[in-house]
Amino acid sequence: MDGDTGLYTIGELARRTGLPVRTIRFYSDAGLVPPTDRTHAGYRLYDLDAVARLDMVRTLRELGVDLPTVRRVLAREITISEVAAAHAQALDVQIQTLRLRRAVLRAVAKRGSSPEEMDLMHKLARLSDEERKRIITGFIDEVYAGLDADQDFEAKLRSAMPELPDDPEPEQVDAWVELAELVQDPDFKARIRQMVEYQASHAEETARFASADLGEATRRRVEAALADGIAPESPEAAPVLDGLVAEYAAALGATDDPDFRRELLERLEIGNDPRAERYWRLLAIINGWPSWQPTTPLFEWFITALRAHS
Hints:
It is a single chain. By secondary structure, the chain is mostly helical. It has helices spanning about 10-15, 20-30, 50-60, 65-75, 80-110, 115-125, 130-145, 150-160, 170-185, 185-200, 205-210, 215-225, 235-250, 260-270, 275-285, 295-310; strands at about 10, 35-40, 45. It has a three-stranded antiparallel sheet with strand order 1-3-2.
């Protein structure tokens, strides 16, 4: 301290604050912590107010506040609260970005991805919620274009959008990348379009299928057959198939005859695609929905048995 003046030299100020002399000199030259006075030799001197300003500058800089904003705080143009709120929001964005990068890197490490795959995963993962929704909405628009099909199912599709969390798990990033690739696959879009067209041309039958609990009947009978080790092509499968077809016919007000079995086979073949079920399973992983037992293998057994025994 300079005698009894209560002023500090820049060296004393450095020892008091722990900041390097060059840093204090930089802040002083920038006008953030101007010297209070100078010695006869021209050396800078600082009072306690300058010490407080320097502490403020150091704290704000350590929190990532830029110099122009620090200058505005010191000039009382904005408050500490306003700065804190703005920078907290900015940090939230940075933290979200870092979490997303971490999830992508973990997914890349798990998959053993190539550089091209890693680049794709990173780009897809960085999309906003609205951009992700546009990818899915574009798929639905293309599938349903020009068709007056099952509006309830279309509404269900449009209400189920991918919502990747701020801190996703690697499997959620993986699922989103796979879903984005799936809905842009021309073959998958053509397959789903075929399903929608069939529903549109068989609206009445589709409504009856939807109203009857035929999925549960299929699960009950086929799971029992699989548990007994009954292959769909085997003679033992015939009575299982007969019972299942009888339930379908009764629920639909039809007669179990060759025509009915032929139409049933056509409907099941068009409506059963593992990729369609995969679509919903990927959405469930992304959105954290409960998992469920896949039904595609059950209907594959049903289809194979119908081909073999009808």
